[in-house]
Amino acid sequence: MKKSIFSLLAVLISLLAFSISMPPDLSEGQKSELKTSPQDSSNEAFDKMMQVLMHQRCVNCHPAGDVPIKGEDSHVTRSLGISGGEKGHGLKSINCQTCHTDENNDFSGVPGAPHWALAPKSMAWEGKTRVEIATQMMDPKLNGGRSAKEIMEHLTEHELVLWAWDPGVDAEGTPRETPPVSKDEYIAAVKEWINKGAIIPNK
Amino acid sequence: MKISFIINGKNETLEVDGNTPLLWAIRDVLDLKGTKFGCGKAACGACTIHVDGQQVRSCSYPVKYAEGKKITTIEGLSNGSELHAVQQAWEEFVVPQCGYCQPGFIMSTAALLKQIPNPTDEDIDNAIINVCRCGTYYRMRKAIHRAAEIQAEFISSSSVNADK
Amino acid sequence: MTLQSNANKNPKSSSRRKFLIRGSIGTIGVLALGTYVFRNPLRRTVLEMAETLVPPYSGSGTEANLWFEITNENSIILHSPKVEMGQGTFTGLAQIVADEMEVNMNQVMVKAAATDTGIVDGMSTGGSLSIAQLFQPLREMAATMRLMIHQEAAGLLGVAVEAVSISNGVFSGGGKNLTYAEVASKIKEWKLPETPELKPISSYKYVGKPVKRIDQLAKIKGEPVFGMDASLPNMLHATVIRPEHVGATLKSVDTTNAISMPGVVKIIEQEGWVGIIANSFPEALAAKRKVKVEWEKSKEWTEEGIRDLLKVGNGNKMITQKEGATIDSDDPNATIYEFTSPIGAHAQMEPNGAVASVKDGKATVILSTQVIGITQKQVAEALGLEPENVNIICTYLGGGFGRRLNTSHAVQAAIMSREVGRPVKYFFTRKEEFQNDTFRPPTHHIMKGRLTENGSLEHLEHHYASGDVAINSVLMPAAMHSVLGTDVGAMRGGNIMYNAIPNYRAVQWHTTLPFATSWWRSLGLLANTFAIESFIDEMSIKAERNPVEFRLEMLSNDEKGERIKNVIQKAVAMTDFHSDVSNNRAMGLAASIDAGSPCAHVVEVSVTDQKIKVEKVTCVLDCGFAVNPDQVKAQCEGSIIMGISAVLHEKMTLKDGRLYPIIYGAYDMALMKDAPKEIDVHLIQGVDIPLPVGEPPLGPIGAAIGNAVRRITGKRLTDLPLKL
Questions:
Q1: CA distances from B53 to A92, A99, C34, C245, C584 (A)
Q2: ipTM of the complex, rounded to two decimals
Q3: Is the separation of the CB atoms in A138 and A17 below 8 Å?
Q4: Is pLDDT at C341 greater than 90 in this prediction?
Q5: Which of C31, C334, C630, C710 is least surrounded, with the fewest CB atoms within 10 Å of its CB?
Q6: Which domain holds residue A189?
Q7: What total of structural domains would you count in chain A?
């Protein structure tokens, strides 16, 4: 179970880490396809995807350091000193599952999803630009050795990632904010961007 | 829905809404009042219990997830009449003041010592993140170190007995 | 079966059993004194008394037989008029009882007296006064009770009183033994003796010793001892909707979608609040979310709006101290600093709540309260009942800190019980706690000083603005304001203790804020001492003087001054205090005197990545005679950590017109990682009676930390919480 959390998060981060000049695991054929792809639609897809990835629903669990960023209702903050530890799962005796289960809890307002965890420290997004995040996400050295395909699967299929569109309510029954792009649009954008070579714009 | 679990060694079956926080099933259905309500949002740790040996903040844990599991609350932490090592240390150092947060801290500490039998100050800082308003942290830290010693003495004496 | 020594529960009808204990035990406390006393020109004198005097115990009765209950197991139950909220009072009282009644500690139990089974304090449990007030009366009552039973025992044993010895609650004489319980059960008519001479303190076995807390085992084992743990048969659970916005009032309520929710029994609309009563708490909470409420919001209060209201120069002015001349406003040699402190939350761990049962013209309310007698009056008034038909049962308190001086929720629970005809348990959610606290008011301070050419202070002035502390609280109605002219709570620590300075004064500006502010452990002391002692330190730096010598020369040579000097000198000696900085680590010193107990702290502080950390605190407190030195130390440790929390972490703000934050974590508090690993407490017995303990050590902590940070960084931090 823990391994799968790790890999999922690793994959999530690594998605964004392709370098422009050298997409590391695209075949020659894909590369040639790339040349013929319209740059504009790839960039547009990238924009959409990054609006999601840079939203608090994603960044909160990709913090700089190993402490989650506070949620909207501020129940998790740095002042409590909650730590994801090296791998993002928490510490031995107190970990993410001490408070979070596999689903949102409407009574307490504590959110939950399968494999609730932080991204490993190497995959921090907080405070980074979208180009930096994407580059880091697609770099196998930083993304846990994920291929572009694995990153795509992770970004578009994994429950913890897709939780962003079903983030539940806080303890007052107020819904949490969802990302600014719909789930379907986002999934389509991720696929388009990666299928078109995961080209990261200059800025 | 019907939920069955073992709590403090006893089989219990409840008829409750599966999404009810386990805390309220424990306090108001099973009438075990040692597990406290502090914030209802898993932020203070007053409701800490063990589920299958892992510490859980029961105010945010739906009762349905407890199905078939083993739950320990403060009432079940000691072994019969003998207090748990953490409780013994708490008594020795006279830790509690108002006492409301103490069961949660004791359960968190017991969970910590299971994973890290001899925690450093840094381990304690990282792992014990419950809230105590009376400010008993200073004595608690000493008691946690002492509990580790008591536990170690107990383990070594049990292994001696086992050898005999 | 328990056997109560008080056969007749109506104390008024058993006058021959009445104990006259001391002339000074009356029905007055310092805040409730007859108003005439406060008329000018005595006003200032009275204010000075209010600052230093331990007011007499203000319980309503003097019947010893209402205080003690003797069980068949030969235990003594003390029905305490004061409550236990963590401060260790019950243990101290048990020590006194055990020593004077010649029983073992484990034979004494202490319970908070309920209004219909014992004597409750007419005012409150607070002000760090419980042991200080009860020490003498309880010794006398316990000794009288012992002698009374001793005399009866002699009669039963058929020997002279002098021939009967007592040990561990057993009387021996003529070769026979009788327990307290055996004697008590045989007595038909009690004969009241004169109060005997008390044992010398030096002969006590328990008093003055570090006896372990009598309540700790129950607390360690998680026994149901708190108000939140109470229940009554057939009880329902309730939650309440109340305004979130400061100053908002209820406009309209639509319960259509809520009333059909599972488990809901009744939803009631009252003035200003809505009560949702259901079979279980989760059901009540789920239904609460379905109630649609519209609020009338007259104004959106902001942080700035509050700051504008609350500043020196605004509101009611009262000079609380005056000696010599003032500093001219345009004096070029004057040094002026401003300080502020934020709104503080109590954040006690046990939420406020109550279990109430109202039926057939009688009410029972079980709760954690610091004001049992006042809660009784309020519930009786709200329900239109006679107070004697309202029984208030107080449990252990899951923290008090002043928050439980306001128990309006007891009234709400009682009303809901009346409406459904069944017992109801109602308590606050944590959000309600944070938004409806009776906060520590924010403060604003202007310090002015002027040095002589020799580097001594010749002028010192403290001008301070505060919201309500004592005023408008249940202990002090608004009408008292016109009499006193000042808020005696906000005044705590506001006056200058350096009475050897030729010219000094303290001026209070009081404003009532649009949200409730009140007692918060140590009242005005925390912020006032922060301002004064930070400024004193700054002046010593400006004068290029040693901060210890600088302070000592400004303290007078009277008893008070000498006691303050003592704690400072002891703290300095214990720590080898110096002003050097090494590895971003330095010491800070500050002192204060509160309610007659002087306290000095030397803190060792480190600064790493702009983060302030308190590494060690050395605390010297002169608390007079310590009934339980270990628990006095525990109070010092707790005060220090709560003080560090307030000084380095805590702050409530206004956001969208609401008080914020609403949860632990977001309301940043000191946790394990923030608590000093070393706290060295040293107690001095400067006088022979017990003095207040639970609040005085909060005084110097803010300035001591700020003074250390000043050494390390060169920056004088003037706003709480201290941030670099």
A1: 12, 15, 61, 43, 42
A2: 0.96
A3: yes
A4: yes
A5: C334
A6: 2-195
A7: 1
